[in-house]
TrEMBL record:
Domain of life: Bacteria
Keywords assigned: Methyltransferase, Transferase
Annotated protein name in UniProt: SAM-dependent methyltransferase
Listed GO MF terms: methyltransferase activity
Keyword Methyltransferase: yes
InterPro entries linked to this entry: Methyltransf_25, Methyltransf_Superfamily, SAM-dependent_MTases_sf
Record bears the keyword Methyltransferase: yes
GO biological process: methylation
Lineage of origin: Bacteria, Bacillati, Actinomycetota, Actinomycetes, Streptosporangiales
Domain called Methyltransferase: residue spans: 49-149
Pfam families: Methyltransf_25
Length: 259
């Protein structure tokens, strides 16, 4: 496999962050709110944090910029995104990337954590899980999350299934924020980013590895779209207090306390 340089990987991550902003014009604000919650609620300056569906580590790296004493285990099953994150962060104290599918039983135990995690975070990832996989994943998460530990999930979570008119307003608020931010033209979208990555010879072997893995996956798009789905799954897994810590339209930071 060709060696992925730090510079090349950083260029792809910068481009990844840009295309993500096309879906989340206030992405950095949500990152800030999430990290504020970790800093305020972890209960220690050196928390053990799990980043679920970490992608190339955009959240993990920002979290460690703020909390250098933290230990972050960044978990994903995409070989290309993990390779990008690993190339940019190689040797960074406190950060470890772990290749695990959150839908597969045993992923939590396979992390080999030295102690229960203080916080689990995720951003723009868990909507891909089916409601059944989301419930199973959260149940397994609680096996490695300490009592009183935090769960923080930033994602699009709609209220339209229980409040249709409010759901429409949430989407309208989001659409107007996007139009203001990108009035001069939208950045490339998710599909265009992946098409470009697939055309880069330096990423060819990683793209092939990803295709082999994705080909065997049962994936049907954004399956856990509604806020009620996430709240119900958290309650079933044993989380007590659950609420929205930050919101802009249907883009939310959902927080929950275990136990």
């Amino acid at each position: 496999m060709s060696i992925l340089t730090r510079e090349a990987a950083q260029n792809w991550i910068t481009r990844w962050d840009r295309q993500q902003e096309g879906y989340l014009p206030d992405r950095e604000e949500r990152f800030t709110a999430l990290i504020d919650a970790v800093e305020a609620g972890a209960g220690r300056s050196d928390p053990l944090v799990l980043d679920l569906g970490c992608g190339p580590g955009s959240l993990s790296s920002r979290l460690l910029d703020r909390l250098p004493g933290a230990t972050v285990v960044a978990i994903d099953a995409d070989p290309l995104l993990l390779a990008l994150g690993d190339a940019v962060n190689a040797g960074r104290p406190g950060l470890r990337f772990a290749d695990h599918d959150l839908r597969e039983p045993g992923w939590a135990a396979a992390l080999g954590l030295p102690r229960p995690a203080d916080v689990a975070v995720s951003t723009t990832a868990l909507h891909w899980l089916s409601p059944g996989d989301l419930r199973t994943m959260l149940a397994e998460l609680t096996s490695v999350l300490r009592p009183g530990g935090l769960f923080l999930n930033g994602d699009h979570m709609e209220a339209g299934d229980v409040a249709p008119r409010l759901g429409e307003l949430e989407r309208a608020v989001h659409d107007r924020a996007t139009a203001r931010r990108f009035g001069a033209g939208m950045p490339e979208d998710w599909r265009q980013w992946w098409d470009a990555a697939g055309a880069d010879p330096e990423l060819a072997e990683l793209c092939h590895a990803r295709e082999r893995r994705v080909a065997g996956a049962d994936h049907h798009g954004s399956e856990s779209l509604f806020l009620s789905t996430h709240v119900a799954a958290l309650r079933e897994a044993g989380f007590g207090e659950i609420g929205t810590l930050w919101q802009n339209g249907h883009n939310r930071l959902l927080g929950a306390i275990y136990g």
